[in-house]
């Protein structure tokens, strides 16, 4: 959609071939339906957030930056706001506002949209795409073809890996695909008891043996099969592919603002105020109700023990548990739960200045179909906007026209 708008603004006849019944079906569910359109951080901070091939995006990010994206949507009638972590959302918190703004702009610029039009194959003649074959039996021809089909995550939205097949038919190398930004599966039965509980402002650490391979601060949630939420999704992007039999230790610091000594002093104050209360009742104010029985069961203090009888060693051990709430990671969610796809069309075979295939003269790629992925926080949508814009500029250049 972004590429089509940029091309049409320069007077080109542009057709979008969309296999779904409406545009932006996947965009609709991004950011839990709120659409995290970009991140407002300094542009240089985008590159560490990209986990695969960040250097490939240098030209795209600087040609159409996060500030350009913000300006584009605000001019298109969508007021935006910046939240924690520099995440940018519509003020309305409705992703549909972003989609409608794109649709309005596409219509204004005269882009021709073909819904329920599924491309099945690209037909090549030498080093040129001659035509696109359609599922209903027809075909479509164009001077330039842009593949912007997304990856394989949330296949119910139409992301079923079509672009990888098209690229493969054109001779491109496809880097093996795997789900990324996914929930993590856990071993312990007590995690499912916490299903639905969301924790804010906690620190998650993940260890492989004694080596700390991930640590960050944020929000997470427990599910019937494991853990999810922004913090966990970011962790999943950092972890090597979890192999069968691998078990990673996760530790959650439930009170990261307090040192162990400060937390112990807090427990002393709580216990001193109610010396005859049972331990399980004396700590009730420290935790969400669903977490309380779990953390009590993991501790070494008998639930009915009066707090005046709790020893210093028991108290310190419990404080350590609060700072290191444990569980075991055994695997990842699948593509049906993944926010994005890791892998895709090898960027070595695509010109980063134009998004044009190095193998096929009139073939271009943009977005998640490429071997590009980033952590959560608006970075992946910025990749989509920037590479779509860059592809449009590349096409205009091939047609002998100057870009915007």
What order do the helices and strands come in, and which of them pair?
Layout: H1 2-9, E1 15-17, E2 38-39, H2 46-49, E3 50-52, H3 58-63, H4 66-75, E4 80-83, E5 87-90, H5 95-108, E6 112-114, E7 119-125, E8 128-134, E9 139-140, E10 145-147, H6 162-169, E11 174-180, E12 184-186, H7 189-193, E13 198-208, E14 211-222, E15 226-228, H8 230-238, E16 248-253, H9 260-273, H10 279-282, H11 292-298, H12 312-323, E17 325-332, E18 340-345, E19 363-365, E20 373-374, H13 379-398
What features would you describe in this structure?
It is a single chain. Helix content is 30%, strand content 25%. It has 404 residues and is α+β, with helices and mostly antiparallel strands. The protein has 2 domains: 2-180 and 338-398, FAD/NAD(P)-binding domain (3-Layer(bba) Sandwich), CATH 3.50.50.60; 183-333, no CATH class. A 6-stranded antiparallel barrel has the order 12-15-14-13-16-17. Strands 2-5-4 form a 3-stranded antiparallel β-sheet. A 3-stranded antiparallel β-sheet has the order 7-8-9, with helices on one face. Strand 7 (119-125) and strand 8 (128-134) form a beta hairpin.
List keywords for this structure.
single chain, elongated, 3-stranded antiparallel sheet, 25% strand, 404 residues, 2 domains, alpha+beta, FAD/NAD(P)-binding domain
Summary, kept brief:
The chain is an alpha+beta fold. It is built from 13 helices and 20 strands.
